[in-house]
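Project standup — Tuesday

K.O.: blocked on the structure for the chain from last sprint. Re-posting the sequence here as requested.
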Amino acid sequence: MISLSGLNARMGLSLVDATRDRQEELIRNAPEHKRAIAAFEERIGKVETVDQLLEDRELYVFVMKAFDLEDQIFGKALIGKVLRSDISDSSSLVNRLTDPRFRELHKGMGFVADGKTNTKTFSASWRAEMVDRYVGQRFESAQAEQNETVGTVLEFRRKAGDIKNWFDVLKDSELSEFMRTALGVPSQSAGLDIDKQVELFKAKFDITKLKDPAELEKLERRYVAISDAKAGVQSSANAALTLMNAAVSAGAGGQFTPITIDITAITALRKGY
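H.V.: unblocked you, prediction finished:
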């Protein structure tokens, strides 16, 4: 995995965009992930009920990671209830939970209310999509661990197309943080009544513009610039970063050796990679 250490978010995103395909290929071929993918592809077709999924530890963990629910892996009882929920019933558990990841899991897995698989579930195309989801989520998680701002931008890119209204934004903590920062909405607004928050956001931005790639890019640029400024990071016009190597011995006289990395070439790869 390529390191983002020492890079501000703008430079980090340029590097991530230029190398994403290669990094995802490395994830697929890493022994740990290669085994997990092979096990999923081999055994998921034999799963007919929610209970069978939960009982197969390897499959269960794979699915949870694919839906960014790694922090909920030990909540099997809750996950079982979510997967058995009737999504058409507004009072069902999956519709009462505010975390959108649970609803996404339910829809993605396709179990019906009695906990059995849908006839359309687990097809070859579905399995391929799940593997792509798993790899993509591993990639995003790795970037977020190194640079939180980069991780949030990648998550925004993935979710933006599904946003229909401001309530979709406000029920997702990452999206809320992204939009508040990009639009200059005070963080204290998170404590307001949700309808008041919606009014604040509506006054700042027409959410239908999220269908416009140019508007998405503007929001992303604002978010990154503000986040880097808050972090006290200054970007240069040439996107060059100077790293100082302070690990010198006392015998070297305590001198620093400057190492300059020009990110311009990396940024250019984004268009032709």
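K.O.: great, moving the ticket to review. Confidence is low (pLDDT under 50) at residues 234-273. The radius of gyration is 22 Å.
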